[in-house]
Structures
1.
Amino acid sequence: MQLRVFGFLLLTPFVAAQTLDLPLTVEETAGVARVAEPLTFGVPLPKGVVRDPARLLLFGPNGQPVPAVFRLVNRWWEDAATQLPSVQWVHTDFFADVAANGRAVYRLKTSDAAPAAPPAALRVETEGDRVTVHTGALTFSVNRTGPMLDAPGLRGVDFLLRSDERVYKASQWPGSELVVEEQNPLRVVLKRTGSHGWVNGQDRALDYVARIVAYAGRPYIRIIYSFVNRQGREMSHFV
């Protein structure tokens, strides 16, 4: 995916009477039209303007509120003498519509209006060693051990590597862990950690960290898979 969110570090927002109106430009650079494309980005805010992140709303190019989630990252602690410190930085999740090779300007404002509702209810259910996610357009499960995914088109999917003429699989390591790392009305992140094990369940090769990301109302998932080398004899072998 090639999308950029920019402008908030270069443009001075209009700030008056504790209000905020900050333009955020989303640019599409891959030549593919985007419809409800999930985006996550950070926004720095002026000191003394926003004290409650719940007052932040994101407005689309048509001037209407769009579903967005704001996560407080930091506050301006030096202005805490008489009241709650103002918000210095937030992370934002939302879905963007951008024409191919085009730009769309969204605006971050303070408002007491009701936020826009998510496109669908995102539900997460945990039962034993399995976490099931319902996005409204897709249902899938992630297992703590064994095959990682039970999803349409990906049932029993495994991750493997070849080393020393052996094939090591993520499903063959019995000590894997699974947690719901992040969850909000628009996005959920499941994190499974473990090792690629040999068939005997004792020997292992590289470790891994797998993050499975799903979005409200969207019919797909994203997998971020990292290989980690902790098995070397020296610290310099760590990757």
2.
Amino acid sequence: LSDFDGIVAPYSLVIAHQIPQNNSFINQINNAPISTWYIVGNQTTEQEFNKLNLGVEVINSKGNFNEILPKVNQQFPLFTLSESTYKTIQNFPPLIGLFGNYQLKTNVYQLLNQKIGAIETENPLLVFTQANNKKNAILFGEGIWKWRMQEFLMNKTQDATNELINKTVQFLAIKDDKSKFRIIHNNTFLENEEIVINAELYNDSYELVNDPEVKITLINNENKKFN
């Protein structure tokens, strides 16, 4: 950190591994219109994290840490993961994260929740927030390198870990500067030509999705409607 000039404007994403105490750079990026992925571990205090006001608060951790297993929330709306990745994540080893109660505010989306031993909780492990044209992700545990090692041990690949990290980075880094619903067609058609209208619908990570049904109504010059 001491080698960086603190100018974040040229960048699309900052990954902050741990949150140092009373650090002006962390406050600077938190107030800048740049996406940030915070990784919270045993070098981060409850007090320093809560100062950032990210939409999640940790309460009564008292400097204690837990071993936290991942529990996948399959209702997560911001992007999709493959079924094989969901299954692999369930077998990942624990990360080290803050013990305590977690309070979530609005516009917080949980991809992974915390599982402590055999007990599944609603406490967040990996969450995403969107507010004031700024996207953040927070991983409440350190040691994600163990996930890559475990996956290679199980499957001889690291596809699931790569997909999780790539999708997270893609969602955070991409700018919301294009429409999520686009219609593609010619402006004019010949009288004997088949009329084809294509539509593309994207989720918040600009992945193509087909779940919602799309309807269109054509109206001719006699005001007659065709569905």
3.
Amino acid sequence: YTLPTPGLSDFPIPFSFGGLADVTFVAGETEPHGVYGCGARTVDVLGSVGLSFVVGRASEGGSCLWATDRDITTVSGESVEVDWSKVSTSTLVSVGGPGVNMVTLYYNGTCPFVWRYEPGVKSCIYSSLTDTEYGCVWAQQDHAIIQILYDEESGKHVLIVWGLSGYGSQAACY
């Protein structure tokens, strides 16, 4: 039986359902890697800890696993593939932006808010709903995406949480 994709107001369902957690948390590797050669920030991991606390509080048992994006993805040029055989849980939470977390990059473009990046020029979230680009002023202003979806290929519910900077990702996790 596959649950319908819940809304964010239903969180922590489906990551914890019927008292059982069944989730893998994925944070970007801190070493430079991936399509853009960037490393993730520690605040992404801290945000994951907060989310896992919420899932754990709603659970009496089950599985709560973790991995870095490098553990479960392969990058070839600008193409990212997720090796779903390395994710044994029925749900996945990806924390950190598409520049530093290749799982998040894999899902870039699956909602009306897309990360646009031109090295040395811009890193922004583009909204196809408003035809507007939203940027970041370091440590002063940020924008973030919180997206929940059902991935048909993997058969998993996925929560993607990220900001334009580590501060944005951490705020989205709150």
4.
Amino acid sequence: ANSFSITGGFFAPLNTVLNGGTLDVSAAGVAVFPNSLRVAGGVLNLGTLDAVDQGVLTQTGGTITGDTRLRVIDGASFSGGTLGGGSAMLVQLSGVSNISGTFTDDATLENDQWLNWSSGDIMLRAGGALQNNGIMYITADRRIEAGTGAAQLGNSVNGVIAVYAGAGETDI
């Protein structure tokens, strides 16, 4: 698989699509994804670089990793893949976001506005956390599962977790 490294400067392509291989932007001075960031396979390594996705983040597979903060302005859609691999990764979600498939969270995923969880399991692994500061709307008859390590589901004072699951149950 191909590997690309950005070794300096300003990384800001209008649309970024990663289907395999590795895209390493950890040595760039700045990483901004203006329109959309799509990860279907492979590895996006942010390293310790704080990055901003000004559009929509779509992850259907692959891994987004680093010891960094990734701010997502227009929401995200997770239907597979892994967040994390770095001990201090924080993914901050603004806008409307969706979880519609099983994905693994080895990072801190922070919902600051609206998060719909409609299907699939959320696997919190190796220190993974889901922090709700907005509204988390659950219609999934699935589970949030803690794997090895200290996993955490947090709900702030202003956070709301509303469960409207079907005939089954939602397990946390």
